[in-house]
Amino acid sequence: MPPTNQRILILGATSAIAESTARLFAARGARLYLVARNQEKLNAIAADLRVRGAASVESALADLDDTSAHPTLLQHATQSLGGLDIAILAHGILGDQPRAESDFEHAAHILHTNLTSPVSLLTWLANFCAQQHHGTLAVFSSVAGDRGRKSNYVYGASKAGLTAFLGGLRNRIDREGVHVLTIKPGPVKTPMTQGMKGYDKFADVHKVAAAIVKAIDARTDVLYVPFIPWLPVMFIVRHIPERIFKKLNL
């Protein structure tokens, strides 16, 4: 039987995947603490999760790019929950690749949001969980981080850095009883990706959320979702020789 009354912190809670994941945990009777920067969306999601069976739902308005506010935010969240069983980090942006190619400030913003900010959050959360010898850190990276491609290499670089950080973090704190899950979604049908080429073929957000919950329960280390085709596809992409890869239009 899946555990009930888990204490779950969701950072970037208004993202479509995070919301769908939260609904599955709410149906189990979890206690949820949501963090995002849009109060109206936070309120609507919190109300929906209470109806779906969550034991309690609290929320905080925060801009997670402000790393200086992280310690106070996370301390309050864990105190409000009475501890922590699962933290889900879904905070991130796609950015604008063409703009980032000529505008360093925009490139730096993508890197800060997708890498620096999560590293700040994870440093605090990892130490908290290590001290209690318990907890799961489930973090959204991306298949885009498996190899740099001209179509999204700034975003991909931020996710590659995050994936490497999570690998090292897992190596450090797994022995403390802390589970680190790296989530690598392919393109998913969400408001963030709507209008992108091939949108109709993107993964269903509810199926992605179900796979994430299953991976958390199973203490999986790395989740490619959907598993097919992204695990075999990225294996092939990673092993194409550079002399060939640099000529491809990817």
Structural write-up:
With 250 residues, the protein is of the alpha/beta class. It is built from 9 helices and 7 strands, in the order βαβαβαβααβαβαβαα. Strands 3-2-1-4-5-6-7 form a 7-stranded parallel sheet, sandwiched between helices. The longest helix has 29 residues. The radius of gyration is 18 Å and the shape is globular. It starts with 6 loop residues before the first strand and ends in a 5-residue tail after the last helix. 40% of the residues are buried.
From the structure above, extract its key features.
single chain, 250 residues, alpha/beta, seven-stranded parallel sheet, 9 helices, 7 strands
Topology diagram in text:
Layout lengths: L6 E5 L4 H12 L3 E6 L2 H13 L4 E6 L8 H12 L4 E4 L7 H4 L3 H29 L2 E6 L12 H21 L4 E8 L19 H14 L3 E4 L1 H12 L3 H4 L5
Parallel strand pairs: 1-2, 1-4, 2-3, 4-5, 5-6, 6-7
